[in-house]
Specification:
Elements (H helix, E strand, L loop, with lengths): L4 E6 L2 E6 L9 H16 L4 E6 L22 H9 L5 E5 L2 E3 L1 H8 L2 E4 L4 E3 L13 H9 L1 H10 L2 E3 H6 L5 E2 L5 H15 L19 H13 L5 H14 L2 H16 L2 H16 L17 E4 L3 H12 L4 E4 L3 H20 L5 H9 L1 E4 L10 E4 L5 H14 L5 E4 L6 H5 L8 E6 L8 E6 L5 H13 L3 E6 L6 H18 L3 H11 L5 H8 L1 H10 L15 H7 L13 E2 L6 E2 L2 H14 L8 H21 L6 H11 L9 H8 L1 H14 L8 H9 L6
Parallel strand pairs: 2-3, 3-4, 4-6, 5-7, 6-9, 10-11, 10-13, 11-12, 13-14, 14-15, 16-17
Antiparallel strand pairs: 1-2, 7-8, 15-16, 18-19
Helix pairs in contact: 1-2, 2-3, 4-5, 4-9, 5-8, 5-9, 8-9, 9-10, 11-25, 12-13, 13-14, 18-24, 19-24, 24-27, 27-28
The chain binds (S)-3-Hydroxyhexanoyl-CoA.
(S)-3-Hydroxyhexanoyl-CoA binds next to strand 5, helix 3 and helix 11.
Length: 697
């Protein structure tokens, strides 16, 4: 038998045990082992069989790394058929997470018991897939069509207690006594001669369902998951469960699953799944480095960023000291935090008591001395080197010697900041994205002297506050903003060359981006970049041979800072914040081109997409070459979680691999020939293009 599945007995009950660390995924050898173990169980003179897993979890799904590769061993339906067709009771004993193919396996058992801490769910939609081993046909038969529709299209994890209430789990057993509880349950079922409960034979919860629920679900998915195919296929499958006999529903599920698993969206989403996990790994981190315990945190600055950062800690029960210089600013910051929580409570996302509990975890102060005992301080003050240096000098004096000092800078040199302290090994950058309480991404900026311990601790903190952390090196703008600078510049160059704002934005929106570059600039505030450019003495101090477009500066001079002033590249409706084209700006752009002597031309949407995507990709290649990012997939994670690139594109570097690096490089060279001041083809891109390589090899 396969080494990952064993068969044994506990008296008159057969025990099938899966042991495939780390998460007991249903790799081909596990399916082989299960098929053989259940054949043994069928032949054995036992009264029932228990299916249980070793380690931290029940089966957490199919082995994601096997998709897209030639299959071997028995397929899912053969293995699960061997379980479901066993002529004596089979009981799944669930701990940890029974997800995807794991829950589908449990649904083929005749009964399910679980410890209260367990969770179940069909999260395949997050991988651009649907539950392809009968989950879409069985779950609605147990919990009802609407509940299953919600769970499958959103990929929700359901706690064991709720799953018990919904009929998915038959019995909850005491924590730590799963094996004994499952065996006792199985014996009891067998002794009672209870019928084998095969979910496929249940029908009452899927008949008589109002067909309009599917149209409502489709409309919601098209809005909240624009461009994603998997949610629509999931809905079609649950609909099939309610309109077709079981076997035909299974056939439909198979067809729609195959469509997804062979498609580009799922390949990209699977890439992001592994990329996200790889991002947490630091190549040169010694195995024995242990993160420090972070029990309390200080945040300096109660503005939009500081307030959002403080909320992250309060949300997971970590006390925060929030420091401001003036009482009015502190009060304003606290009021914004409270307002955010109260809005969540109003929408049903938390109770009023929870609002108060979280507020109680935030201690406001005007005194630096209040930071003397915290384990980590995150500074979120104005983005200016001199201001940051003053803050860090003071911080170094008041913070306890082993406290970590972090800067929420989005562009500045962390090494220069660290140099004003006596503990540069304890200094690190934590670049949160706005709104900091919502956005999942955290760029963790590793300085030249940042210690492994400081880095490991920051990664652990990042996980604790449910963010996705990516370690980056020091350079202007780090990874995300350095690349976005090229992207926004191209957007502006296209304005002066012939496009209007919507003609630049719409093609990438159509590609799937949450918004185009100019709409994004309007949302972020045009004044931010303007101040940075002024600080750098631009355009006067522009290096020779570099290109500069003055349109954004002209907008700022007119007081058009973007959405917050109701106008930027577009005009914004005060009530709906909806963007409208603005003839005044379109005129300004045309006149600007005339002044610069540029003959405007029509720019096709394909060229817009190429110039925007390839400007990101080419800069990404420079970043990889310089070692600012550890791996191409880290850049993809940054763009999916921080810049509104849909996971179904897999991020810019994955996108480049799909287009083909030879094609990308050839176009970049053409652009560079036409405009050598703004395009500098990256040597790494050239090398990979010529060798037939990929960024994500
Ligand atoms: C499916 O089931 C399709 C079916 O319908 C059948 C169709 C025919 N496969 O996340 P972690 C690895 S689709 C392979 O850090 P945690 C992961 O890469 C699947 N590997 O731990 C990592 O490796 P490494 C549906 C997997 O405790 C290590 O395990 N199921 C899989 O924070 C630890 O993972 C899902 O979508 C897998 N299925 O969270 C569940 N899962 O150490 C996906 C994990 O080398 N998994 N790995 O970086 C999860 O949501 C989380 O991993 C879980 C544990 C909650 C289980």
């Amino acid at each position: 038998m396969s080494h990952s599945v064993s068969y044994g007995r506990d008296g008159d009950v057969g025990i099938v045990t899966v042991n495939n660390p780390p998460v007991n995924a249903l790799s081909s050898h596990v399916r082989q082992g299960l098929t053989e173990a259940f054949a043994q169980a069928a032949a054995d003179d036992t009264i029932a069989t228990v299916l249980i897993c070793e380690g931290r979890t029940f089966i957490a799904g199919a082995d994601i790394s096997e998709f897209g590769k030639p299959s071997s061993g028995p397929n899912f339906l053969e293995t699960l058929g061997a379980i479901e067709n066993l002529p004596k009771p089979v009981v799944a004993a669930i701990h940890g997470t029974a997800l995807g193919g794991g829950l589908e396996t449990a649904l083929c058992c005749h009964y399910r018991v679980a410890v209260p801490s367990a969770r179940v769910g069909l999260p395949e939609v997050h991988l651009g897939l649907l539950p392809g081993a009968g989950g879409t046909q069985r779950l609605p038969r147990l919990m009802g069509a609407q509940a299953a529709l919600d769970a499958i299209t959103n990929g929700t994890h359901i706690g064991a207690k709720a799953a018990h209430a919904q009929g998915v789990i038959d019995e909850l057993v005491e924590e730590g006594r799963l094996r004994e509880g499952a065996i006792a349950f199985a014996r009891n079922i067998a002794a009672r001669g209870a019928p084998l409960k095969r979910v496929r034979d249940l029908n009452d919860k899927v008949s008589g369902v109002d067909p309009r629920i599917f149209d409502v679900a489709r409309a919601a998915a098209r809005k909240s998951k624009r461009g994603f195919q998997a949610p629509l296929n999931c809905i079609a499958c649950v609909e099939a469960a309610c309109t077709l006999p079981f076997d035909e529903g299974m056939k439909r599920e198979r067809e729609l699953f195959n469509e997804l698993v062979t498609g580009s969206q799922s390949a990209a989403q699977r890439h992001i799944f592994f990329a996200e996990r790889a991002a947490a790994k630091v190549d040169d981190m010694p195995a024995d480095v242990k993160p420090l315990a972070i029990r309390t945190v200080g945040v300096i600055g109660a503005g939009t960023m500081g307030g959002g950062i403080a909320m992250n800690f309060a949300n997971v029960g970590i006390p925060v000291v929030l420091l401001e210089m003036e009482k009015a600013a502190l009060d304003r910051g606290l009021a914004v935090i409270r307002g955010n929580y109260e809005r969540t409570a109003k929408r049903g996302g938390m109770s009023i008591e929870q609002v108060e509990q979280r507020m109680a975890l935030i201690t406001p102060t005007l005194d630096y001395a209040a930071l003397a005992t915290v384990d980590l301080v995150i500074e979120a003050v104005y983005e200016n080197m001199e201001v940051k240096k003053t803050v860090f000098t003071k911080l170094d004096q008041v913070a306890k010697p082993d406290a970590i000092l972090a800067s929420n800078t989005s562009t500045l040199d962390v090494d220069e900041i660290a140099a004003v302290t006596k503990r540069p090994h304890k200094v690190i950058g934590t670049h949160f994205f706005s709104p900091a309480n919502v956005m999942k991404l955290l760029e963790i900026v590793r300085g030249a002297k940042t210690s492994h311990e400081t880095l490991a601790t920051t990664l652990a903190v990042c996980k604790a506050i449910n963010k996705i952390g990516v370690v980056v090196g020091v350079c202007d703008g780090f990874v995300g903003n350095r690349m976005v600078h090229r992207y926004i510049s191209q957007a502006n160059y296209m304005l002066e060359e012939g496009a209007l704002p919507h003609e630049v934005d719409d093609p990438v929106y159509e590609l799937g981006f949450a918004m185009g570059p100019l709409t994004m600039s309007d949302l972020a505030g045009l004044d931010v970049g303007w101040r940075i450019r002024q600080g750098k003495g631009l355009p006067e101090k522009l290096p020779p041979g570099e290109r500069y477009c003055e349109i954004a500066d002209s907008l700022c001079e007119l007081g058009r800072y973007g959405q917050k002033t109701g106008a930027g590249y577009y005009r914004y409706d005060a009530a709906t914040r909806e963007r409208q084209r603005d003839p005044e700006i379109e005129k300004l752009i045309v006149e600007h081109a005339k002044t610069k002597g540029i003959t405007r031309r029509a720019i096709a949407p394909t060229e817009v997409v190429e110039r925007l995507m390839y400007s990101l990709i080419n800069e990404g290649a420079w970043i990889l070459e310089e070692g600012i990012a550890q791996r191409a997939s880290d850049i993809d994670v940054i763009y999916v979680y921080g810049y509104g690139v849909p996971s179904y594109l897999g991020g810019p570097m994955f996108y480049a691999d799909q287009v083909g690096l030879d094609k990308v490089y050839a176009r970049v060279c053409e652009f560079a020939k036409a405009d050598p001041a703004s395009w500098h083809p990256a040597p790494l891109l050239k090398k990979l293009a010529e060798s037939g390589g990929k960024f994500n090899a």
